[in-house]
Structures are given as C-alpha cells and as structure tokens.
# Entry
Amino acid sequence: MTTQEVENVKEAKLEFDAECPSCSASIEFNPATGKLTCPYCGFETEIATPEKEEEKVAQEMDFALAEERGNFNWGVEKKTIICKACAAETIYDALQVADSCPYCGSNQVMEASAENTLAPNGVCAFEVTDKQAGEHFQKWIKGRWFTPKAAKISAKPDSFKGVYLPYWTFDTKTSSRYSASYGKHRTVTDKDGNTRTETDWYSTSGFYQEFIDDHLISATTRYDRDMMRKIEPFNLLNNKSYKPEYVTGFLSERYSIGLQDGWHQAKSEIQDHLHAQITTKIRREKHADVVSNLRFSTTHDDITYKYLMLPIWLSSFRYKEKIYRFMVNGQTGRVGGDAPISPLRVTIAVLLSLIVIACIWYFFMSE
# Structure
C-alpha cells in the first residue's frame, strides 16, 4: 500500500460476535426460520425482539435534523478488521458492513456507521432462501419468449450470493399550485358529409395535495440500477429495527449515495409522479380529453427518511461462453436480469405481427 492508502485505513469495530456457542463455528441468519443458525452443528437461537413497540420497526427520521448528508467515498476510504477466530488481519472497502474472513470463513459484522456517515435504522430480512431463489429463476427464464430453448434448458445459476444493499425512503407532504390548458374533442361534419375532430381549449388552475409515503431510492452506485428496478417493489412495511444479527452470513454495504443526493433524486421522481396525478385530476374534473401546458410549483413539508438495508440474491449463468447476470428479490422472489435473445424468435414475432396488421387492414378495406 502507498503511504496515502495507509493513512486512509481505519480500524473498524465488530458489532456482533457471530460465533456458535456450541461448536465455535460462524452462525448466520437463516431466511427459512428467521433465526440465527449454525450450518455445522444445527444450533439455533432467536433474535431478541425489542420490548417497546416503537423499537421493533424502523422509525421515520427528521430530514432537517440529519447531520451527515453527503456521499461516501468508497474508492478511497478503507478499514482493517482483525478476525476474532483466527486473528488474521484483512483490509476491507469501507462501504462493507458485513462479510466473511477470507482465511477461516468466519462471519464478521462491522460497525454499521463510520465517521461522518449515518447508520441504518432498519432492515428487511431475507425471506427467500437461495434454493427458492433458484426456483424463481427457473420460472423466470422459462417464461421469456425470446430466449432460445437451449438456453432455458441449460441455464443453471451459479452459487447465489446474498447481499443487503442500502436504500433511502422518503415521506413528505406535498402541496402544489398548478395552471394548465385542457381540451375537449368534438366531431364536426362539413357540407360534403366528411367528419373531422376539433378541439376546444380552456384554461384552468387549482391546488393539489398528496402525502408521499416511503418513496424508495437506491443508495448504491455499484449495481445496475435498471436491473435493481426490475425486482422492485419490496415490502417496506415488513421491516425490522436494525440489528447486526440480521446481516450476519451475508454481504452488506453502507450507502455511497448520500442523504442529500438521495433526496434530490426523490424530489425529481416525485415531481414526475405529481405531474401525472395532477393531469389525471384535471381530466377527471373537467371531463377533458387532453391536458397541455401543465405548470405547477410544489412545497414539501414534514420530510422524513429511513435508511434501510434490503435483501437481494445475486447470481449469473453462462450460455455460449457469455455470462448473464441477474438478481432475485430476497423478500418476494421477483427476478430481474439479462438473458440471451434468439434472432429467429424475434423475426418470427415480427412476421406474425405484420401478418396480423395486414389481415386487419384487409378486413377494413373490404368493408
């Protein structure tokens, strides 16, 4: 390591002792039972549930009071961990919260927050096992019409890697004042009996309010965002107050997209949502056919956030020397990813579509 890298390495504290009290192996969270389980001797133990109801789930945090809002520079920051089991010293990427020792395989859960970062306040635990993730993958790939039959038969996922990825959720009360034009179509018949559609335009303005609940924003830059969107939604109501026991045995990382940037992205997406909602409101109230030139300004009140760790299975498969990656939602089993496409099947689909269009055209012309 260079001198600069050495200066950036910090000693991290372990949050949780993942050692089995029976055989001293590493215990891990078991999605099938919701308990901590030793894969070697079968020892099981419950994860303690807080007595107070408000401590059982992640609580909304006041956005205005958040002290650390910036992004986290995972490319520079490093941390060193000394394994309790074998005393080996390993340098980790500072974004990692949980991993296993590369020398003896024991599970290690590091402190969830570092200097100048926030700690997660909630976790949605794995409910889908790696075996079930494989079954969901098989159903997914068999249902892809454009994927070659040979790929559907031969595609076998590599070993699954369970990860907890960081997400922000935002709540906000929105109040929007708007103005727009809306049009109503009418049919006009000329003296020759020909008909045409004309639109009468009117102006309108108004006020729209909506409470946005748990708008989800990914807080990592490491993974394909389009693929991550394909496995949404998550059941965010089924979250638990963060405990290191839930992430033991899995990879997990803290955020690289900070709270402030997360909120900027959320505001942009909420703006698009409000545009669609206000358009629908005008069409419904004015019995309009079209809405145009919608302009609105929005104020956000009572902004709160949660920092959640959400469960995802990662894997890949190989077909004709090419690797295709995919993800499985660790709560719902929903699959998203890449798969090979058969040019022949695409050509057949296009030809069938053209034949259907030609038949419809011929039917109307003959009428």
